[in-house]
Amino acid sequence: MDQIELNARQDLAAAYRLADYFGFSEGIDNHLSLSLPNQEDKYLLIPYGLHWSEVTASSLLVVDGEGKKISGEGYAEPTAFLIHGAIHNANKKNKCVMHTHMESALAITMIEKGRLLMADQNACRFYNSISYLDEYEGLVLDKHTAKPIGDSMKESDVLFLSNHGVIVTGNNVYEAWESLYYLEKACRAQILAMSLGKKIKSINGQIAKKVSNQVKEEASGESANSFRHFEALKRLLISNGHEDYLD
Fold first, then answer.
1. Which residue segment(s) compose the domain that 89 sits in?
2. From start to end of the chain, where are the E strands?
3. Domain count, the chain
4. Which of 3, 43, 65, 181 is most buried (CB neighbours < 10 A)?
5. 89, pLDDT greater than 60
6. Is the pLDDT of residue 64 over 60?
7. CATH of the domain at 132
8. What is the pLDDT of residue 223?
């Protein structure tokens, strides 16, 4: 294993640990996946049955585009990669795919025609980058059910799945993590505002677009806010005794 692959493994393992730390995980279900650097037809994926708090760099499986195990110890659940495979294949931009049932975002998907409102600064970062599937089709157990999900992520970076959860994508782990983190923050703020029983004050579309563009300008390269944020959170893992994610 070269250093580039090791770095990718450590970043994805950190994302799993952080998702559990912030309460984004759900039992042993859901997945975060990552295209292997320079091998974009191969992907890193958690073995089924491993809790997100247990993930280490070496525990991650390598699977092919069909989700079949190439290397690693443990079970590559056949259904695990249906959603992720469809999204990875939809567009090369989808190098990292994170699918969770995190509670605040899930709550928005449970509302009839639930939408993330452009009503706070965190929400504005997602202006014009979200798709919605408004009909729940049950468990994704075949490619036919996964196809609309992949199609929805050809251009969008975020997808709300009605009555199900959310998906975010990124060009790398730290960009995808940044979206996952702030998406849950925005959804939580919206739910709190809705609970007050008052009309929500939306942000003008032109201003929301401006904020989105400002965020994107700071979102590329290793000097990006998303990179610095993720590096800080990896230090948080280590300071809280989770340095074994590096192993």
1. 3-233
2. 31-36, 39-45, 61-63, 69-71, 96-100, 130-133, 158-161, 165-170
3. 1
4. 43
5. yes
6. yes
7. 3.40.225.10
8. 60
